[in-house]
Design brief:
With about 350 residues, this protein is of the alpha+beta class. It contains eight helices and 18 strands. The strands form three sheets. Strands 2-1-6-7-8-9-10-5-4 form a nine-stranded antiparallel β-sheet, with helices on one face. A six-stranded mixed β-sheet has the order 11-15-16-3-17-18, with helices on both faces. It has a three-stranded antiparallel β-sheet with strand order 12-13-14. A hairpin with a 6-residue loop joins strand 13 and strand 14. Helix 3 crosses helix 5, helix 6 crosses helix 7 and helix 7 crosses helix 8. The protein is globular, with a radius of gyration of 21 Å.
């Protein structure tokens, strides 16, 4: 597990350091403080800035555009990734770079370094990690051309065991693929228990492949006392959100689970149960969780859970990002409980 992370020159950060990371970390702060950027920096560090990781983070932010058309309708368009968006100041020259480094529980250093190289003929974006592994991307002006065959669904495909759960969720094909990996084993029971938070009458989840050209998978649930299956979508966005989170947690086993705006689609009355599910299974699956939130209800639910389970004191911590600050401010579970009782604001000054 990561114990600390330092970021220099990445996206909105001139410099940021977060220390005292625990198994479950909740990230709070005002808009544009860099919560999502911190999640992406964690993803880049853990995946050693693999090319697919950089592509996915830019795809989530809509920083890519189409470029040209394949020779036939069956072949995809090329894409251009705007490399400027990866760097603080959004400007590229031979001094442009960013660095992300951290340490794990064994004090083992982790590092990725990304910079711009220029020679008389072209510009290149280069990456390296602490092991000396390097990657190079040829730049066309300010963009990286993605020429390899791709599909839109490829950007949802998860690389285990370091998983990023975006606000948009995952598409139906990826959801069905992840379900097929766990159906029939103990993880199926865990995933089913997640959506039972919203609807206790659910007995099981079923995926089908529809007729027709696209063969789009569809999710259904079997309800107690009902002969007909029920479309998952009819239960509302919260059920799909919990299904996605549980499926992705299983894939993150032994690694890290990064969740952007964990409260999306979930009513405040469910958040205490959601936190219990995440904390208990972070321990069971041996994974480290980083989640962002804007919700005071999310913090209140965590404080309520702590009142019933003091073992969380060494497991969960809160980290606030303030715009322009070089360090996050860390709060323990005791701090969170005191703030909740006194109605103090920990998410950032108004």
């Amino acid at each position: 597990m990561l114990q600390s992370i330092t970021i220099r020159g990445y996206r909105c950060f001139t410099e940021l350091k977060a220390e005292g990371l625990t198994r479950v970390n909740l990230l709070v702060g005002k808009n544009n403080a860099g919560k999502t950027s911190l999640l992406e920096a964690l993803e880049l560090l853990l995946l050693r800035a693999q090319p697919d990781c950089i592509i996915r983070s830019s795809w989530r932010r809509e920083e890519m555009s189409s470029h040209g058309v394949g020779p036939s309708r069956s072949e995809p368009e090329d894409l251009l990734l705007d490399a400027r968006q990866l760097f603080h100041g959004r400007h590229l020259d031979t001094t442009t770079s960013f660095l992300i480094e951290g340490t794990d529980e064994h004090d083992t250093p982790l590092k990725i370094d990304v910079w711009i190289v220029s020679d008389p003929d072209d510009w290149t974006l280069a990456t390296s990690d602490e092991r000396g592994n390097t990657e190079e991307w040829e730049l066309q002006k300010t963009s990286i051309e993605i020429r390899k065959p791709w599909r839109y669904a490829d950007f949802d495909r998860m690389i285990s065991p370091f998983i990023f759960a975006s606000m948009a969720g995952i598409d139906s094909h990826e959801r069905a693929r992840l379900w097929n990996l766990i159906v029939g084993n103990e993880s199926e029971d865990f995933v089913t228990s997640a959506i039972q938070i919203l609807e206790p009458e659910i007995e099981r989840v079923i995926f089908t492949v529809g007729d027709g050209y696209n063969q789009t998978p569809a999710a259904f649930v079997r309800m107690k006392g009902m002969a007909e299956r029920v479309p998952l979508g009819s239960l509302g966005h919260g059920a799909s959100r919990l299904l996605d989170l549980a499926l992705l947690m299983v894939q993150a086993r032994g690694g890290a689970f990064l969740v952007d705006e964990i409260e999306i689609g979930l009513h405040h009355s469910t958040m205490e149960s959601v936190w219990r599910l995440i904390i208990e299974n972070a321990r069971r699956l041996d994974l480290q969780v980083f989640a962002t939130t804007h919700s005071q209800d999310c913090l209140r639910a965590l404080a309520n859970l702590y009142r019933d389970d003091r073992s969380m004191s060494d497991t969960v911590s809160l980290h606030r990002l303030d715009v322009g600050a070089s360090r996050t401010e860390r709060f323990s579970m005791d701090d969170l409980e005191i703030a909740d009782e006194a109605h103090l604001e920990l998410r950032g000054n108004p």
